[in-house]
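Researcher: I'd like a structural prediction for the single chain below. Treat it as a standalone chain; there are no partners to consider.
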Amino acid sequence: MTCQICGAWLPVLAMFCGECGSSRTATVESRKRPDPRPNDTTIIARLPRTTVVISVPIPAEVPAPVRATAVVTAAPGAAPPAVSAAALPTRVTFVLTFSTGQVASVQGSGLIGRKPLAQPDETFDDLIRVADADRSVSKTHLEFGQHDGDFWVSDRVSGNGTVIRRPGETAEALEPGRRYVLPRDTRVEIADHSFSVA
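Model: Treating it as a single chain, here is the predicted structure.
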């Protein structure tokens, strides 16, 4: 009789192969080890790349905010020329009141989350940390900003998503990456917490 694993000759009463140590009754099929991690990888069907829908028009280049006062000179004895207010960008103040008791007054752009962090090529005016011991809010959960005096928010692919409740309208779950314009008195739910826009 020969070993079914290595092919070595086996004595009549041998229980194991002297060459490979396999049992006399072992076969190639019985020696195959089961996969220890049969389902550790999930195959994700790749969808065709689509463009992100933006709900408000954004200029190609956003001008830097004007923080310095313009200096205008006039000839001696002449009245100084008028400076047009339309030339200066307008920034509206919005107050965000959180369910945690935090209150933030914002005028520009920013991020909201447990530990918000801008990407290396991004610049924001405010980084607002939400106190969340249960960690339901993502580290960088939401982005906000202004356009023509309107306040907008955009979900940053958060783990638990974002829901907005505009006054007099039904709740709407945000599509990640899309900007949603919010009127004042809108409630924004970020996981287990929320804030209102005033």
